[in-house]
Amino acid sequence: MDQRKIKIGALGCSSIAAKAILPTVVGSTNFELVAVGSRDSVKAGEFAQKFDCDATTYDGLLDDERIDAVYVSLPTGLHAEWGMKVLHAGKHLLMEKTFAASLIDSEKIIKFASRHGLVAMESLQYLHHPLYHLALNSVSEGAIGVPLLIEACFGIPERPAGDIRNDATLGGGAILDTLIYPLSFCLGFCENDPADLHIKCDVDEARGVDVRGFLQMDWSHLSAQVAYGFGFFYQNHFSVLGSNGRLSASRVFTRPKDFAGSIIIETQSGVNELPVPAADHYASMLEAFRSKIFGEDDSGTNEGDQILRRIRIIDKVMKRTYGPR
Description:
The chain is α/β, with parallel strands linked by helices and about 325 residues long. It has helices at about 15-25, 40-50, 60-65, 80-90, 105-115, 130-140, 180-185, 280-295, 305-320; strands at about 5-10, 30-35, 55, 70, 90-95, 120-125, 145-155, 195-205, 210-220, 225-230, 235-240, 245-250, 260-265, 270-275.
């Protein structure tokens, strides 16, 4: 493999691929977009023209020997099938969030990747933004005393009728679409899984999908309250309440690359703002993917373990909402 560039293909022509991932790939000096694969030849052709790459089918993409890695942006219900096919083709995998629709599927993908020396990574971009690390470091350094309560919310307006997130057969619903953001944020403050979960989930019976939910996670010393889903006035924020203060920020999970802003720290001494530099978290995520492929990752975290930790809780929420599937 060329030690300078990763040759990557895109499986699926999603809106997130078009708006964020593929423009970042094209703008990177360390990646080369080789092809886009779709079941819709017209759509593949449009993407190929826009991003100056080849157009092909799903299978054609996996058979392309030029490609080192594949970014999968299909509906979540298809992640397990095509994620495994990517790995069986001997290619590294960057999977759009949420990683898979179940814990069993996620474990299969991660175990296969590990056995065959391949990288399987979740495309959870905000984890690679300075804001996330500044928040974790500020709390761990005692900026608000002992953390006692985390609140995080990612809520978006109602989805239109034809949106794939309203299609249960494709892994639709809010649990598999929006929960991953505030959940993953809260888990960053504790190494262990929560001892207890309290779940409230609203299901649209006509469509057969969950539309919003509220989750409380309890540890021995800390609680976290999460809100997520569709039908909200747009919400995208977190706060951490501690024994000596409160730390909070907005625009946490979908932060424009030219947006700087700050983290607010409130204590008895007053209100301070911790500056957050503008950063392209999609570009940082791709660089993290590249560093894992070349064995240069110095983050000290195990990607597979982190994915499974998130999916274990999502899987429990799914089962309590829908029962065994």
